[in-house]
Structures are given as structure tokens and as C-alpha cells.
Amino acid sequence: MADETALHDFPSLFSLKDKVAVVTGGSRGLGLNAASAFLQAGASKVFITSRKAKACDEAVAQLNKLPNLTPGARAISVPADSATIAGIESLLSQVRQHTAHVDVLFANAGATWGEKFDTHPDAAFAKVMDLNVKAVFNTIRLFAPLLQKRATVDDPSRVLITASVAGLGIGSLGQQATFGYSASKAAVIHLGRNLAVELGPRHITMSGGVEKHAQGNPMKRLGRPEDIAGVVVYLSSRAGAHVNGAAIEIDGGALWAKGQLMDAAGDEPSAKL
Ligand SMILES: NC(=O)c1ccc[n+]([C@@H]2O[C@H](COP(=O)([O-])OP(=O)(O)OC[C@H]3O[C@@H](n4cnc5c(N)ncnc54)[C@H](OP(=O)(O)O)[C@@H]3O)[C@@H](O)[C@H]2O)c1
């Protein structure tokens, strides 16, 4: 009879030893939380990308000062605009200067816009959809060859997408309504499901985190960096190797606590385009 207590090499189950990760929107916020987690879980290279080179350089300097990095591990600044194909091509060629493979792609860069229904601007809707959906698709498409390089059935490469509970429930309405944002996050969750089936045979898994720093939260607290860190390390490690096409709500149960979602500080609609 099989020994059901036997788990292969349990101490390494959540390890990211020697993994190479790319984090879009990695210069601050959730992306920087995740980058720190990747490095502290053992990743050897973590590429930080966002539009502003100075912000990427500063994030990298901060990450490289972490006291518990494995010898030789480092964060690398690769600024680029993910919203354009030219920007993603530039990102890819910068990453290629340092590595021939990528194990984890965290497609996290995103933007939001709040404006009431009657005057909701066409340009804002388009820009939010472009960055939150089309850019995610194009980044995954262009990085697929690098993601496939080391991917195997037992150790697939991972693509993580940051969505939002606004893509599962109802987002902000009224004066600061987020029609484009909510639609974009619903779209990117479904994009993840389609890509899970398309890329699964290439040994690339897809997962989404749908995050909200919620007020009126059943857990009576806001989200913490460790809440993001725990999920991205789980999904990127051997422990999460069979999760594909899933969306994980990191919101303390807030989605189910209200009929209508209210935006809190971290997810406030604003002019971020
Ligand atoms: N914070 C929350 O409570 C929350 C909740 C739900 C979902 N989310 C989602 O989580 C993700 C990260 O959110 P956050 O709050 O951490 O965001 P944030 O603090 O506003 O940071 C956004 C990041 O994306 C980068 N970025 C923006 N436009 C870009 C572009 N065109 N190309 C490349 N990088 C770009 C920004 O840097 P540059 O300005 O230098 O480009 C920055 O690094 C987003 O997808 C967001 O929709 C956040």
C-alpha cells in the first residue's frame, strides 16, 4: 500500500530556488511586495519593470539590500512601457541580455480611472483596457518562448495576473465609477482561463490573484504585503504546480460580504493613466 504520509522533499515545496521572475509594475505596490517575496523565497533573478527608469532603479536598490538573499541573487531594473508592443519588445530584449529563460511572469501592471457614467471618457476606457487586458496578453505572448525554455510537466513555468474583485463583483459606481476598470479585470480573469488551456500543454500555468484592500472587511483588517507574498510564492513554487486557470481572492472574504463593492485607498479610481 502506498505511504500517503510521504511527500516528496517537503522542505523545498515552497522554494523558488534558482527561479527567474519578471514583475511588471514591479517598482511599487503589489508588484514590489511580490518581487521581495520572490527573492526571499530563493529566486536568483527578479526583473523589475515599469515605465519610469528611476522608480525601477530605486526598487532594485531596495530589493538588493534585503538581508536574507541567497548568494548571487539580484533584482535587475528593466524599464519599459508595457502598454505598447514596442515597449514589451524592449522589455524582452533587456531581459534576454541577462537570461535565456524565465520561470515566472507576474503580469501585474495595471491602471484605473474613475468618472461618472454620463461623462466617462472614451480615451480613459481605451487606455485601461489596453494596459489591463491587451498588454497582459501581449506580454505573455512575447514571453512564451522564454517561459517554455525550462518548463516541464513536473515543473511548469507560471504566469500570474493581478486582477481585482471588481472583475468578479460590481466595482465603483456613481461619481467615481470604474466601468472600464471593472470590465478590464473581468476580461483579464477570463483571458487567464483561456490561456490556461492554450498554454497548459506547453507546461505554462496561468493563475490570477484578485486583490482588494477592503474596508468593512469580514477579517476587520486591510490587506498586508504578506498576503500577496504568500499567494505569489505558493503559485510560483512546486506547491502550486497543478493550479491552472484559477483566480484566488486575496480580500479577507470582502467580496462575499457586500452586494456592492466600495473602493478603499489602495484601489481608488484615479488618474493613473
Ligand atoms: N492596490 C490594490 O488594492 C489593488 C486592488 C485590486 C487590484 N489591484 C491591481 O493590482 C495591480 C497593481 O496595483 P497597485 O495598487 O500595486 O498599483 P500601483 O501602486 O498604482 O503601481 C502600478 C505599477 O504599474 C506600473 N505601470 C503603470 N502603467 C504602466 C505601463 N504602461 N507599463 C509598465 N508599468 C506600468 C507603475 O509604474 P510606472 O508609473 O513607473 O509605470 C507601478 O509600478 C494592478 O493591476 C491593479 O489594478 C490593486
Quick structural overview:
The protein has 273 residues and is α/β, with parallel strands linked by helices. 37% of the residues lie in helices and 14% in strands.
Can you lay out the helices and strands and say which pair or pack?
Blueprint: E1 20-24, H1 29-40, E2 45-49, H2 53-64, E3 74-77, H3 85-96, E4 104-107, H4 122-148, E5 157-162, H5 179-199, E6 204-211, H6 225-236, E7 246-250, H7 254-257
Parallel strand pairs: 1-2, 1-4, 2-3, 4-5, 5-6, 6-7
Residues 24-25, 27-31, 50-52, 55, 81-83, 108-112, 131, 162, 164, 211-213, 266-267, 272 line the site of NADP nicotinamide-adenine-dinucleotide phosphate.
Describe what this molecule looks like in 3D.
With 273 residues, the chain is of the alpha/beta class. It has a single domain (16-267), classed as Rossmann fold (3-Layer(aba) Sandwich). It is 37% helix and 14% strand. The chain contains 7 helices and 7 strands; from the N terminus they run βαβαβαβαβαβαβα. It has helices at residues 29-40, 53-64, 85-96, 122-148, 179-199, 225-236, 254-257; strands at 20-24, 45-49, 74-77, 104-107, 157-162, 204-211, 246-250. It has a 7-stranded parallel beta sheet with strand order 3-2-1-4-5-6-7, sandwiched between helices. It is globular, with a radius of gyration of 18 Å. The termini are far apart. It comes from Apiospora phragmitis. Keywords: NADP, Oxidoreductase. It holds the Pfam family adh_short_C2. Belongs to the short-chain dehydrogenases/reductases (SDR) family.
